Structure formats: structure tokens, C-alpha cells
Automatic annotation (TrEMBL):
Signal peptide: none annotated. Belongs to the zinc-containing alcohol dehydrogenase family. It comes from Streptomyces pristinaespiralis (strain ATCC 25486 / DSM 40338 / CBS 914.69 / JCM 4507 / KCC S-0507 / NBRC 13074 / NRRL 2958 / 5647). This is Zinc-containing dehydrogenase. The keyword Manganese does not apply. GO terms for molecular function: oxidoreductase activity; zinc ion binding. Gene3D superfamilies: Medium-chain alcohol dehydrogenases, catalytic domain, NAD(P)-binding Rossmann-like Domain. PROSITE patterns: ADH_ZINC (PS00059). Its cofactor is Zn(2+). InterPro entries: ADH-like_C, ADH-like_N, ADH_Zn_CS, ER, GroES-like_sf, NAD(P)-bd_dom_sf. Keywords: Metal-binding, Oxidoreductase, Zinc. The keyword Zinc applies. Residues 8-344 form the Enoyl reductase (ER) domain.
Length: 356
């Protein structure tokens, strides 16, 4: 089969690799119908995630069809159309029993495209299939569903839930890429007083406004002053870092109010300064986290009911699966191309229409 293989920092290739086989009785092999590229993949290629070794197939988000399952798999069978979660869960370890699947110690967690071959391929082996893939209703398109593999659970769990967004809060989201936009969309489930989006690119600020942000500001146009003005000098109740660079994190800590929350979502490859000499007295809570995807079934139900934004609100570029290298180029040059989310592949099933 063809797959995108990491060859070392700055190097990838779309090449022939062996088809995946079942290695465990809990595995499933999925034919990939739709896949997307994550900002984390760009961090891997830059060398920010040294655990990824040369020869690894990248990718951790996909929708596809089950072609083979191990003898212990009970929840899906060949022919089922499924969402492949970015997180695998053994279901037995101490962290899985706490719904902290991202910290799984039984062979799960973030393994796809990280510690084992991932989804940016024609086929993928998924471990612990009973907890790591989700059957899809026909009413949810592949393009919509693939947004639930990572970005919506991440924005919701690591941004909104960790940030403890409450009714009436002032919420600042620094970084209006796909994760930031998913954070803006799901924060509205808790009726915040206002949402402020910060980014360098005007195209992303416009996307944030379209997604429901009440105010937007360029990262180089005084966001701290705007937050201070809108909150009468108090600061934001919740600030979400969705960029992954030191400057963004440090900016977040300057915008949060005493007693507020800073929720770090971004993937960081360099150290950031933590100014405890200023923060120690402010009762500020700072959270970090890898998504657990415990919310995926709920988000999938919301997507099927039309309660989440469709892919059309976020997907800016579409490619055939074999155009992987072109898609990466477009996604990596988002400032020039205006790319938000790119999707490769397309549906291979009969669409099911649902009466209104």
C-alpha cells in the first residue's frame, strides 16, 4: 500500500510500505476513506517529537471501513464504517479506568503516527478496536466525522473542560487554527459572556468570527490591552493557548485574571518561561493535557443532530489520498494558502439521507 512515511526531521515521502496485519486479537484493520493533517504532524516533521522514529507512517485521524478484526473485537465487524480516534485505550489500566485514555499504560494512548504506524495511508491497524474506533451513522459524512477524531475532542476537553468555562465568563482563545476554532465552537455550549480570538492571520480571525467569536484581535495588535479594556482591568476568566510557541503561552499568563484558568492545548517544542514571580500571588490555575477522547461519543451524537459546525465551516482544502505531499505543503504554508483544515480522500459508501 501507499503511505506517508517520516524519514527524519524535515523529510517525508509518499511511498510503498507493507500492508498492515492483525498483531493482536483486539486489533482491527481499517481501509482509510478520509484522513486529515494535524498541526502535531508538522511538529513531528520539525523534530519537536523525538519519540517518532524514521520509518513511521504519520497520521492519527481517519474515517474508514473495517476490513478485518481480531478474535476479541466485539463492537465492530468487517464492512462497518468507523471513525478512528487519535487515542487508543486498553480499557484496563488505572488511567483508562479514570477515562484518562491519553495516559493509557496498557499499550494505548497516542500511539498512531507516534509510536506505531498511523492513518495517513491506504490501510491502518488500530489497536484496542472496541474502545478506539466508533461506528458512524450514515447521516454523518466522512468529512464531518474526521473532525471528531482529534480537533473537536481536543478543543473541548483540553481547552473548554480543563479551562472550566462557565456561564458569563470572558474566554480568550490564542490561536485560531483548527483546534482554536473547535475550542470556540464548544465553549459556546457553556454560554460564556464573550469569546475573544487572537491570531496573526486575518483569514483565521475571520474564521473565528464565523465560528462565533465576539471579538478578534491580531496577536501583534495589543490583545492584552483589548482584554484589559473589555474586562475593566480584571483580565479573562479563561485563556486557552492553542498555538504551541513560548510567546503565546507567556501572553496567555499575562491576560488571565486572578483566580482564572490558563488551559494549554498547544504542542510545545521549546521551553516557555513561567513567571512565578508574578503568578504565585494570583491564584491562577494552569492546566496541560493530551486529549483523552472520552467525549467522542457525545460529540458524535451532537454532530449527527446538527449541533456542531459542519466541516464546511473549517475545511478549506480537499485532496485525493495520493496528493498527500501537496496537501502537506498547502497546510504547512497556511499563512500564504489560507488553509485551516485539509481533508484527503472521500466517501466510498452510499450516502443515507435523513428526513427533516
Amino acid at each position: 500500500m501507499k503511505a506517508l512515511v517520516f524519514q527524519g526531521p524535515g523529510q517525508t515521502s509518499w511511498q510503498d510500505v507493507p500492508d498492515p496485519d492483525l498483531k493482536d486479537a483486539a486489533d482491527a484493520v481499517i481501509r482509510v476513506d478520509a484522513v486529515t493533517i494535524c498541526g502535531t504532524d508538522l511538529h513531528i516533521i520539525k523534530g519537536d517529537v523525538p519519540e517518532v522514529t524514521p520509518g513511521t507512517v504519520l497520521g492519527h485521524e481517519a474515517v474508514g471501513e473495517v476490513v478485518e478484526v481480531g478474535s476479541e473485537v466485539r463492537t465492530v465487524r468487517p464492512g462497518d464504517r468507523v471513525l478512528v480516534s487519535c487515542i487508543a485505550a486498553c480499557g484496563r489500566c488505572v488511567f483508562c479506568r479514570e477515562n484518562r485514555y491519553g495516559q493509557c499504560r496498557g499499550g494505548g494512548g497516542w500511539v498512531l503516527g507516534h509510536l506505531i504506524d498511523g492513518t495517513q495511508a491506504e490501510y491502518v491497524r488500530v489497536p484496542f478496536a472496541d474502545l478506539s474506533v466508533h461506528p458512524l451513522p450514515g447521516a454523518v459524512t466522512s468529512e464531518d466525522a474526521v473532525l471528531l477524531a482529534d480537533i473537536f475532542p481536543t478543543g473541548y476537553e483540553v481547552g473548554v473542560l480543563n479551562g472550566r468555562v462557565r456561564p458569563g465568563d470572558t474566554v480568550v482563545v490564542v490561536g485560531a487554527g483548527p483546534i482554536g476554532l473547535a475550542t470556540i465552537a464548544t465553549a459556546q455550549l457553556y454560554s460564556p459572556g464573550r469569546i475573544i480570538a487572537v491570531d496573526l492571520a486575518e483569514s483565521r480571525l475571520q474564521a473565528a468570527r464565523d465560528m462565533g467569536a465576539d471579538a478578534t484581535v491580531g496577536a501583534d495588535e495589543g490583545p492584552e490591552a483589548l482584554v484589559e479594556d473589555l474586562t475593566e482591568g480584571l483580565g479573562a476568566d479563561v485563556v486557552v493557548e492553542a498555538v504551541g510557541v513560548p510567546e503565546a503561552f507567556e501572553q496567555c499568563t499575562r491576560m488571565v485574571r486572578p483566580g482564572g484558568h490558563v488551559a494549554n492545548v498547544g504542542v510545545h517544542g521549546r521551553p516557555a518561561a513561567l513567571h512565578l514571580e508574578e503568578l504565585w500571588i494570583k491564584d491562577v490555575t494552569i492546566t496541560t493535557g493530551l486529549v483523552d477522547t472520552h467525549s467522542t461519543p457525545m460529540l458524535l451524537r451532537m454532530m449527527a443532530a446538527g449541533r456542531l459546525p459542519a466541516a464546511s465551516a473549517m475545511v478549506t482544502h480537499r485532496f485525493e489520498l495520493g496528493q498527500m505531499e501537496e496537501a502537506y505543503d498547502v497546510f504547512a504554508r497556511a499563512t500564504d494558502t489560507g488553509a485551516l483544515k485539509v481533508v484527503l480522500g472521500g466517501p466510498r459508501h452510499d450516502e443515507v439521507s435523513v428526513p427533516a
